[in-house]
Amino acid sequence: KQLRKDLWMDKILTGIDNLESVKCMDCNGTKENALLYGLVYSATNEELLEMTESEDKYLRVYAFKALEKKNYKGMYSLILKHLFDNESLSYEHEEWVSLGDMAANSPALTSKQKTEVDSILLFTVNNITTTRKIIEELEPEERYHDRIAQLTAKYPEALELLVKYKRAEDVKIIEQGLLNAPSFSESIITQFPHPYFKNTIALLKSRKRFYMDDHAEAIAVYRDSFALKEFTDAVNFSNSKYEKPAILAAMAKYPCYLYNDLMFQLAEEYREDISQDLFTYLKSVDLPRTTKLAQKNLKESHRFLSEYEIEMYMEHLLFFSFDFIFHISA
Question: Which string of DSSP letters, residue by residue, matches 96-155?
């Protein structure tokens, strides 16, 4: 009987060892389930605990999951012990997970224990992916502020949380975060358009890390002479076919009377990019000019307009005609 068990265990361990050589598992899940349940039913808790110390990352994971399935009473201590095991592998069709991530999200954790684990990861330097998820789910509470400010250098998610505090004393930290991760410029600045970030935008532009087609809203949100100059210069000197439509869309999202002339100029040049919201705003600014724009667009509707856009312009012209007749009659 012992010999049969030893042979069976040898077969399981050989199967797990082979996973390391192929770097992934069977797509249908049959092989990994057989290996896992083989450990659950064949190995003692003591043997499994010893396996969690193996140099083989797959064996560590399988032994950990087997103990989890057996409802091992010492799981919390085991979780804490392996919380910072960040050697990545493929497991159950997930790519590049680690034992540390599995431990941090173990179903064996009680609600209180999960809170404790999250706190450990948040306040300890680590390379566990779950830390990012923890930061993403935090609210901008006072107790987290200082730690989140420290984490911005490593986690863009921390930068997105820090900006929600909207504190003037954080602007230099946020700026450094944007210089490290410029792709977040639009999302960060539109949430917290502090005047300081105008200099940050200039710095990013000088480093060729800020482009209108990706970040126009970060400028439009200021709704001032700075934004108008940035847009006017871009329109006059840009060779990109994507920048002008992006500027038009950004001004439509953050409309301002300073933008009106430039909005009409771009709307006439990029008529296919006129949204319902933009058209409604233009009507409120200059009804006759918007009507001419609608008439011109309808004349060339075969070139770029959808049925919806044609209907939008037709409704406007009908309304304008009735409104005009009403005023003449009055």
Answer: EEEHHHHHHT-TT--HHHHHHHHHHHHTS----THHHHHHHH----GGGHHHHHHHTTT-
